[in-house]
């Protein structure tokens, strides 16, 4: 069945050894200045930016674009199935609209944020995509982390995958990677549609494909 959903761009930055954060799951500066400028433009041109609760608990991001007003900023979306988002999280500030997406059995609410409930153990991404489309979201940027990106691939909900490869090694068995989760029995095949040197790193742009 074909569903009406936003165009989904997954964006992340990884090291040359495929890690997106430190072994302690702390944010590290992986992007070059040129890549950060590109990410800012991508955010600006998205109707909504989505992350998982793991990213919020590790990095406490604002998920806003500097210089944009409340009305101009993209909608901030956090997937938080068990209601772990602290009231003090920066995504709950008054710089932009925020939507917390949680599971049907979670009754938590947050001051200043809208709450949407879908799915039993995990947020139902397909249902969420339809609901976002219904409220006018046409372009969605998924910023991470590894569990959420993996789920988007698993559900066939990725239209474009942009990964910046920073010129550094972090190492560490438990450092997160762009697609963690349980792994796929069948790989998700990608077509490389663009590559660009951005400062001391490389931006790779892929589109998922059924047949190569
Ligand atoms: N380099 C980069 O570009 C970049 C960008 C962002 C983040 N990061 C890094 O990524 C790490 C965080 O990644 P993470 O994998 O731990 O967390 P995450 O992907 O941000 O969040 C995962 C959590 O989201 C919740 N969730 C709810 N519905 C889900 C669904 N349908 N699919 C998947 N998750 C769902 C689950 O928690 P519940 O069960 O509680 O609902 C799950 O554990 C941090 O170290 C951060 O620094 C790096």
From TrEMBL:
GO terms for molecular function: 5-amino-6-(5-phosphoribosylamino)uracil reductase activity; NADP binding. Homodimer. PANTHER family: 2,5-DIAMINO-6-RIBOSYLAMINO-4(3H)-PYRIMIDINONE 5'-PHOSPHATE REDUCTASE, DIHYDROFOLATE REDUCTASE FAMILY PROTEIN (AFU_ORTHOLOGUE AFUA_8G06820). Keywords: NADP, Oxidoreductase, Riboflavin biosynthesis. It is an enzyme of class 1 (oxidoreductase). Belongs to the HTP reductase family. Pathway: Cofactor biosynthesis; riboflavin biosynthesis. Residues 6-204 form the Bacterial bifunctional deaminase-reductase C-terminal domain. The lineage of its organism: Archaea, Methanobacteriati, Thermoplasmatota, Thermoplasmata, Methanomassiliicoccales. Its EC number is 1.1.1.302. The keyword NADP applies. InterPro entries: DHFR-like_dom_sf, Rib_reduct_arc, RibD_C, RibDG_C, Riboflavin_Biosynth_HTPR. It catalyses: 2,5-diamino-6-(1-D-ribitylamino)pyrimidin-4(3H)-one 5'-phosphate + NAD(+) = 2,5-diamino-6-(1-D-ribosylamino)pyrimidin-4(3H)-one 5'-phosphate + NADH + H(+); 2,5-diamino-6-(1-D-ribitylamino)pyrimidin-4(3H)-one 5'-phosphate + NADP(+) = 2,5-diamino-6-(1-D-ribosylamino)pyrimidin-4(3H)-one 5'-phosphate + NADPH + H(+). This is 2,5-diamino-6-(ribosylamino)-4(3H)-pyrimidinone 5'-phosphate reductase. GO terms for biological process: riboflavin biosynthetic process.
